[in-house]
């Protein structure tokens, strides 16, 4: 029996080309990028090259890229780093109720420290209403954090419209682009975002070890860790995970080069899958059907279904899928890339 893996929004298999460059790095590039001898300089060259690749993928400058251990750390650094540094200007933060826990748990922690957080609802299609955000803005609002693509529904949020709205407000704008990166064209200048999060393991790169945070040049972050003085321009101390960074850079290049082709293929997979279910007259509905969505995530409801039993039977049949947070209501997701 051949297994079918449909949980790529949780993590993706590592691309063979990524494995190849990482293996070569482990064998050949073992110097510390902060060392001044030849081994260190070689490591620094590889780190700088990877930083340039990451920056170019979102139309940023390499100096504005901070390598982290993944999306969670990048979200934490963006949100807490901005909040701590700007708390003398205000302590109000705006986010949505559909954010990843890397964001929600971070702002909840800030609430315990005296910050005030407004949690915005989305409509029945999973889409944020710009007017709701506009109404929530205050003079003491210092940060807005809204994910670019929801990891369960695949709904694309109005990031460009939010960026335009905030042009006349001093608050900083962060977006978690973990599920969007590699699928959507991202230009931080056109979107007017100040901070943006990306994770390696969502695009066939190494998992559990590397991501990046884009930080607009005007922003000063309060570092969350203490250690090496100059690493990541004092924003994220610690010896860089060079092998993972090299693998990440390879994954980024592959994702950028194949983005249009992959997008079209995923649309065809999604449409074929849904049509087959309709042909078999299955009773289901698509959550977020009438919102703009990425084609890699299909979020379905089956009335009266026991999702845990359904997913268990799928697993026994060699199909890997995942339930969403509302699993008791018959909600499950396919992540098809």
TrEMBL record:
It catalyses: (sulfur carrier)-H + L-cysteine = (sulfur carrier)-SH + L-alanine. It holds the Pfam family Aminotran_5. Residues 4-328 form the Aminotransferase class V domain. The keyword Lipid metabolism does not apply. Gene3D superfamilies: 1.10.260.50, Aspartate Aminotransferase, domain 1 (3.90.1150.10), Type I PLP-dependent aspartate aminotransferase-like (Major domain) (3.40.640.10). The keyword Zinc does not apply. InterPro entries: Aminotrans_V_dom (IPR000192), Aminotrans_V_PyrdxlP_BS (IPR020578), Cysteine_dSase (IPR016454), PyrdxlP-dep_Trfase (IPR015424), PyrdxlP-dep_Trfase_major (IPR015421), PyrdxlP-dep_Trfase_small (IPR015422). Its cofactor is pyridoxal 5'-phosphate. It comes from the Bacteria. Its EC number is 2.8.1.7. It is an enzyme of class 2 (transferase). Keywords: Iron, Iron-sulfur, Metal-binding, Pyridoxal phosphate, Transferase. GO terms for molecular function: cysteine desulfurase activity; iron-sulfur cluster binding; metal ion binding. Belongs to the class-V pyridoxal-phosphate-dependent aminotransferase family. NifS/IscS subfamily. This is cysteine desulfurase. It comes from Gracilibacillus boraciitolerans JCM 21714.
């Amino acid at each position: 029996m051949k297994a079918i893996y449909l949980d790529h929004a949780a993590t993706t298999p590592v691309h063979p080309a990524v494995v190849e460059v990482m293996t070569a790095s482990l064998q050949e590039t073992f110097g510390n990028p902060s060392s001044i001898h030849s081994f260190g300089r070689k490591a620094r060259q590889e780190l700088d090259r990877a930083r340039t690749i990451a920056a170019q993928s979102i139309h940023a400058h390499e100096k504005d890229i901070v390598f982290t251990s993944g999306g969670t750390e990048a979200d934490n650094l963006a949100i807490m780093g901005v909040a701590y540094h700007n708390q003398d200007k205000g302590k109000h933060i705006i986010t949505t109720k559909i954010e990843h826990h890397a964001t929600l748990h971070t702002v909840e922690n800030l609430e315990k420290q005296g910050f005030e957080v407004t949690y915005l609802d989305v409509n029945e299609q999973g889409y944020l209403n710009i007017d709701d955000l506009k109404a929530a803005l205050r003079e003491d609002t210092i940060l807005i954090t809204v994910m670019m693509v929801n990891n369960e529904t695949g709904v694309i949020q109005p990031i460009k419209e939010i960026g335009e709205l905030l042009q006349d407000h001093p608050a900083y704008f962060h977006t978690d682009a973990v599920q969007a990166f590699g699928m959507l064209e991202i230009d931080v200048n056109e979107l007017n975002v100040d901070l943006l999060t990306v994770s390696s393991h969502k695009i066939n790169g190494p998992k559990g070890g590397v991501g990046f945070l884009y930080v607009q040049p005007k922003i000063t972050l309060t570092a969350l860790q203490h250690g090496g003085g100059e690493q990541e321009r004092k924003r994220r101390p610690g010896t860089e995970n060079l092998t993972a960074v090299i693998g990440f850079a390879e994954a980024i290049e592959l994702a950028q080069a194949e983005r249009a082709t992959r997008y079209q293929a995923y649309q065809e997979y999604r449409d074929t899958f849904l049509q087959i279910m309709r042909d078999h007259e299955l009773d289901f509905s698509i959550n977020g059907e009438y919102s703009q969505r990425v084609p890699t995530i299909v979020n379905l409801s089956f009335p009266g279904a026991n999702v845990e039993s359904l997913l268990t039977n799928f697993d026994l049949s060699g199909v890997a899928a995942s339930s969403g947070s509302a699993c008791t209501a018959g909600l499950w997701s396919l992540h098809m890339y």
